[in-house]
Each structure stands twice: as structure tokens, then as C-alpha cells.
Specification:
Elements (H helix, E strand, L loop, with lengths): L1 H8 L1 H30 L4 H18 L5 H36 L7 H18 L7 H17 L3 E8 L2 E8 L7 E8 L4 H9 L11 E9 L6 E7 L8 E12 L2 E8 L12 E2 L3 E10 L10 E10 L5 H29 L8 H6 L3 E2 L2 H28 L3 H15 L3 H16 L1
Parallel strand pairs: 6-8, 6-11
Antiparallel strand pairs: 1-2, 2-3, 3-10, 4-5, 5-6, 6-7, 7-9, 9-10
Helix pairs in contact: 2-4, 6-10
Length: 432
């Protein structure tokens, strides 16, 4: 009995059953609704047909497995059970391996002392390597996705909406492997890059506009480079457990343009737990700069935020895409209202939070990196444009050829000239 209870208490089993319910319940609900509607709207003569075939239906239901309907039903049931059991077995096997590895080295010290020692050791190591948490390699990755990646990657448009003081555009890219990559461009009217930079970094103010953030704490910070490591816990819908994030973040500055990079980083002082589930693959970064207002007055009073975001939340990709698509515009409107409230709260003389103070500590960006990225971007764009031109020049759109051929045949089939032209064209094609 204890083994049975331990089996169902494992989070992998629960998550698997949730995935099965998410996929199976809507389908069977739709089937039942369709059956009810079809039965209520059935014509009267179907009752007579049912009485006539009732004996045959009884035979099919009681037939041995070698007969039609029941054999198909048993086959599909066996396949479904095999798929579910294989998924459960793989997840349980991986969890048992983790448990065996973690339990292979028992310690005689109390749990509290072990946690304090591990925390102190990890803190010392991270203090030595704070500058290496977020590096220029991550910045190059951001520049590639937002600039060079636009020409090399296929982006599907998701949204293009605006309000009186904000405009928003969003795209997504679905790679063959890995999570979906989202890209967006947001323009806030009457906002400065400094305010927007502090707004995104201010964890103390974030819960006022982001209802998903349930917990936050700054774990490490470097006053020289502005690099910080923060601990987040986000609330997810009822069918998913909460998610835990260990995020390293850093800001580069070039003129009045800010390059903010945030990504998931390992942190030994906080080992992973069953709940909340930790999101290890996480990358959410953006470029903030002043742009001309859409008012048409030629003033640089608007702020543009170009964002790229992807993460592996441990949710089926189709379910995650559905949630993002339905919740995107609502989240953007909360973001805009939160920024306006932040502008009001940031009156002259108001003290800044610790997170906002760290946002003002930036690293001066190497101009060679930006120029190299820009040159590579132009080269890639020219190469892609030339390839597209060559493809358009030599490609044949068979759809229009078929339509034109049908129109020509319909227009000329009744005349002798048309018949002669058709015969001549057929002979030329036959010679080729």
C-alpha cells in the first residue's frame, strides 16, 4: 500500500495525468456534445432504423475480439495504454536515477548545518565569479536574435495592436528543437529609456502590475558591473504547479541605448526541489532606446523596447502556445498601465528601490561589438535578399500556370483557331 501511495505522490505521475486530461477531456466533451445535439435533432425515421438494426448492434457489442468494432476498440485502447505506460516508466526511471544519485552519499551532519555550509560555500564561489554570470556572449546572442536573426529566421506574426499611448507588435519562431522564440516591439509614448530601464528592473514594484510574481529575492549583486542574481517564484494556472527561476541579469549601455540581458543561471546555494518546479532554460532580454513620437512633432519623446524571450517551462508546446496567444494582449495592457503608474510614483525626490539603483549601474558597451554585429547583419540581409531574388526569378508558380491553362482552354476550345493552337502547343511539349 505504501508503494502504491508513493507511486501516485510522485510529481511526474501527476503531471503525466494532467497532460492526458488536457488532451483527452476536451475531445470527449466535444464528442458527447455532438452526440447529444445529433440525437436531439434526429429525424423520426431513425427510430425505425434503430429497431431494425438493434439485433445486429447487440451482436457487434457482444462479439469476440475477432470481429470488427470491438477489435478496433481494443486495438486503440491497447495503443493508448502502451503509450501512457511508456511515458510513466521513462519519467519514473529518470526520477529514480536522480534519487539514487542524491542518496548515494549520506551525511551525518544535520540538515540545517549542511544548508548553511552549502550556502556559504556557494556564496563565496559566486562572489568570485559574479562578473562571469552574464557575459558579452549573451549580449551577442541577443544581438543575433533581434538583428541578424530577423533575416535568417522565419517569424510568424502574432499581434499588431495599439492604444493611444502605446503600440505593440509580436512575432514567434518555432525551431525544430527547443522552445518557441518570441520577439516583440513595443513603443511607449511619453517615456524615457531611463524610466523604462528602471521599471523592468524594479522587483519591489513589479508585483503591483505582474500578478504572476509571487516571490522575489536578490541573492547576489555586484556594485561594479551591476550584475545581479535574483530568485523568482511565479504563479501558474490551476493545472500547473508554480515555477521557480534563478535569473542572472546585467545591463550594457551605448549612448542612450540600453542592452538588458536576463537568463537562467545555476545557483548551488538553492538546490532544486520537486515544488516549485525550476525553469533552467530561460532567456529574456531587450534593447531600450528613444525613438520619434508618432505625434509627428519630430521629438524623441517615445521609447522603443525590442524584446526576445524563450523558456522551457515543462509544459507541452501546443498548450504553452495557446496560453501565450490568449494572454498576450492582457499582459501587454497590464505592462503599459504598470509603466504609467511607475512614472507617477517616480516623482522628483522619491527614493529609488535597491533594484532600480542597480539598474543605473551599467557596463559601457564596446563599440566594435555593435559595429561588427551591424556589419554582419547587413551582410546577412544582402545575402538573404539576393537568394530570394534568385528564387523568385527562377521559380515557377504552378498555380497560375494551371489557372491560365484552364482559362485558355475554356476560351478557345470552341473555335478552329483555338483547336489549332492547342494541338500545336501539345506537339511542341511532346517533342521536348
Amino acid at each position: 500500500m505504501d508503494i502504491f501511495m508513493d507511486f501516485f505522490n510522485k510529481p511526474s505521475v501527476t503531471e503525466t495525468f494532467v497532460d492526458i486530461l488536457l488532451c483527452a477531456v476536451p475531445i470527449w466533451v466535444a464528442v458527447m456534445i455532438g452526440l447529444l445535439i445529433g440525437w436531439s435533432w434526429r429525424p423520426r425515421w431513425t427510430g425505425l432504423v434503430y429497431l431494425g438494426f438493434r439485433s445486429k448492434l447487440r451482436f457487434l457489442l457482444t462479439a469476440p475480439p475477432g470481429f470488427g468494432a470491438r477489435r478496433i476498440w481494443l486495438a486503440f485502447t491497447a495503443l493508448s495504454v502502451f503509450s501512457v505506460c511508456r511515458t510513466l516508466w521513462s519519467r519514473l526511471g529518470s526520477s529514480n536515477k536522480k534519487l539514487s544519485v542524491s542518496g548515494s552519499a549520506p551525511s551525518s551532519k544535520p540538515v540545517g548545518e549542511e544548508e548553511e555550509e552549502s550556502f556559504s560555500r556557494a556564496s563565496d564561489k559566486i562572489t568570485e565569479k559574479e562578473q562571469d554570470v552574464v557575459t558579452e556572449k549573451d549580449l551577442e546572442h541577443l544581438l543575433y536574435l533581434l538583428e541578424a536573426g530577423n533575416a535568417n529566421m522565419e517569424w510568424q506574426s502574432m499581434m499588431d495592436k495599439s492604444t493611444p499611448n502605446m503600440s505593440y507588435q509580436a512575432w514567434r519562431h518555432e525551431p525544430d528543437t527547443g522552445p518557441v522564440v518570441y520577439r516583440s516591439r513595443t513603443v511607449f509614448e511619453d517615456a524615457t529609456p531611463d524610466i523604462v530601464r528602471d521599471f523592468f528592473w524594479d522587483d519591489e514594484f513589479r508585483p503591483k502590475w505582474d500578478p504572476m510574481l509571487a516571490y522575489f529575492k536578490t541573492l547576489e549583486e555586484d556594485p561594479k558591473t551591476g550584475t545581479t542574481i535574483v530568485h523568482w517564484i511565479k504563479k501558474f494556472p490551476f493545472f500547473c504547479s508554480d515555477r521557480e527561476y534563478i535569473i542572472g541579469r546585467r545591463i550594457w549601455e551605448c549612448g542612450k541605448k540600453y542592452y538588458a540581458v536576463t537568463k537562467g543561471v545555476p545557483y548551488q546555494a538553492l538546490p532544486k526541489r520537486d515544488k516549485p518546479r525550476r525553469v533552467e532554460l530561460y532567456f529574456s532580454s531587450w534593447i531600450i532606446k528613444a525613438v520619434e513620437s508618432r505625434k509627428g512633432d519630430g521629438q524623441m519623446t517615445a521609447c522603443e523596447v525590442s524584446l526576445v524571450h524563450y523558456e522551457d517551462m515543462g509544459i507541452p508546446k501546443d498548450v504553452a502556445k495557446l496560453g501565450v496567444r490568449h494572454g498576450m494582449w492582457g499582459a501587454v495592457k497590464k505592462l503599459n498601465s504598470g509603466l504609467r503608474a511607475y512614472q507617477t510614483a517616480r516623482k522628483p525626490g522619491t527614493s529609488l528601490s535597491r533594484s532600480a539603483q542597480m539598474a543605473s549601474i551599467t557596463t559601457k558597451l564596446n563599440m566594435d561589438l555593435v559595429e561588427t554585429s551591424g556589419a554582419e547583419e547587413e551582410e546577412r540581409r544582402h545575402a538573404v535578399e539576393n537568394a530570394r531574388k534568385q528564387k523568385d526569378q527562377f521559380s515557377v508558380d504552378w498555380k497560375w500556370i494551371v489557372v491560365g491553362g484552364v482559362a485558355l482552354a475554356c476560351g478557345l476550345h470552341s473555335s478552329a483557331i483555338g483547336k489549332a493552337l492547342m494541338v500545336g502547343a501539345g506537339q511542341r511539349l511532346a517533342r521536348r
